[in-house]
């Protein structure tokens, strides 16, 4: 086991053992609340998955390392002058979106550009209005911050026609350039890596026997793809059972999550051992419901966020308050990378091709859970830009 939180071993062992006794060989079909509701599923399989578990433990050990040197670009065009960037945010209540925006602001100050952030408020109409406003400002570039570009296809087409460079942050499933939609590049970790390591942490942490609740936002293609990949990886271990898939749109998280958590606790009781959410913010909203039900902050259920590295998530992890781990995006680094990618676009150069590695933050890391950024990126980008 990789965590060092002070969970009571005897209680945890008894609980997981009771889960195993409740298991059956029935295949899981899942339950996605809001669209369908099936019969209660068993929590854990009878025999775990020793081979898969060993592989998961090795992967988790690697991902917990914090001594990762800078592996990004060390050369590129010097800073272009007089540029302006508009960051269109899906919603600034999403910690990942806001963290990347702050990174863009920080990097823009260094390179000498102007930045404006427009908050889409998390609604289709709000995001479309924000994109329309951004295009009307005729900036040098626009960041599509955490939403599907197809939802603003008309505005994106106008930006393309006007020669405004478009760069996504978590806008499409894969990092790198995109032609449909037309993005110079998309900055993100590989969703496959994030999904896989999140599921592997559960497999490793549970010794291959877990009853899991998965929380996602199916309205965001990126998030939906991530949760689908998590499901696939969890299914690689026969001792893991996916109890429920909860579809809670991020803008509704604060109102819906406590209610859904209370319902799940009543429904699954001791069979629920682990949770994984596509964003840390769900566990901030879940904490009051867990607390009201008398659940210990140190778990179970043991909760992992498959993104984005909200500062409050690190506090919950280190204080053992209803979150055990997160797979944080290097948000500040990604903001700096966005600015560097724009500089390459303005200079007629190709994108850098850099994709940050995945990391798992837990209380058991050498310095506890903390913001994740590979060292050396600020110095590297300043040198590239001549700043």
From TrEMBL:
At the top level, the lineage of the source is Bacteria
Q: Where is the signal peptide?
A: 1-25
Keyword Repeat applies: no
Q: Where is this region: Disordered?
A: 33-52
Q: Which UniProt keywords apply?
A: Signal
Is Iron among the key words of this record?
no
Question: What PROSITE patterns does its record include?
Answer: PROKAR_LIPOPROTEIN (PS51257)
Enumerate the spans annotated as Periplasmic binding protein domain.
85-341
Pfam families from the UniProt entry:
Peripla_BP_4
* InterPro entries in the cross-refs: Peripla_BP_I (IPR028082), SBP_2_dom (IPR025997)
> What is the protein's name according to its record?
Ribose transport system substrate-binding protein
């Amino acid at each position: 086991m990789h965590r060092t939180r002070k969970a009571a071993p005897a209680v945890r062992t008894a609980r997981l053992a009771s889960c195993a006794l409740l298991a059956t060989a029935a295949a899981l079909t899942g339950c996605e609340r809001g669209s369908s509701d099936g019969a209660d599923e068993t929590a854990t399989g009878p025999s775990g998955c020793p081979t898969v578990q060993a592989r998961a433990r090795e992967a988790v050990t690697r991902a917990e390392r914090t001594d990762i040197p800078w592996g990004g670009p060390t050369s590129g065009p010097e800073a272009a002058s007089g540029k302006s960037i508009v960051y269109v945010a899906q919603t600034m209540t999403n910690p990942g979106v806001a963290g990347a925006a702050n990174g863009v602001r920080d990097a823009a100050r260094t390179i000498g550009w102007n930045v404006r952030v427009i908050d889409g408020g998390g609604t289709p109409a709000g995001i479309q209005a924000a994109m329309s406003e951004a295009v009307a400002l005729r900036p040098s570039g626009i960041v599509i911050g955490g939403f599907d570009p197809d939802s603003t296809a008309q505005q994106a087409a106008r930006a393309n026609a006007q020669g405004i460079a478009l760069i996504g942050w978590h806008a499409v499933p894969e990092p790198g350039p995109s032609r449909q939609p037309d993005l110079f590049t998309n900055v993100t970790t590989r969703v496959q890596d994030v999904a896989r390591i999140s599921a592997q942490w559960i497999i490793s942490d549970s010794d291959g026997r877990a009853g899991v609740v998965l929380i996602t936002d199916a309205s965001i293609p990126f998030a939906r793809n991530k949760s689908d990949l998590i499901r696939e990886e969890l299914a690689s271990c026969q001792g893991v059972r996916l109890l429920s898939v909860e579809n809670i749109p991020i803008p509704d998280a604060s109102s819906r999550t406590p209610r859904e958590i209370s319902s799940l606790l009543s429904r699954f009781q001791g069979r629920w051992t682990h949770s994984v959410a596509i964003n840390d913010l769900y566990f901030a909203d879940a904490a009051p419901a867990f607390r009201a039900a008398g659940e210990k902050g140190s778990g179970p259920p043991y909760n992992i966020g498959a993104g984005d590295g909200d500062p409050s998530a690190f506090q919950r992890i280190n204080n053992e308050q209803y979150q055990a781990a997160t797979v944080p995006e290097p948000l500040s680094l990604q903001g700096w990378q966005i600015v560097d990618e724009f500089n390459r676009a303005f200079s007629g150069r190709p994108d850098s091709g850099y994709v940050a590695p995945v990391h798992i933050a837990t209380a058991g890391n050498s310095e506890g859970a903390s913001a994740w950024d590979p060292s050396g990126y600020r110095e590297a980008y300043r040198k590239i830009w001549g700043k």
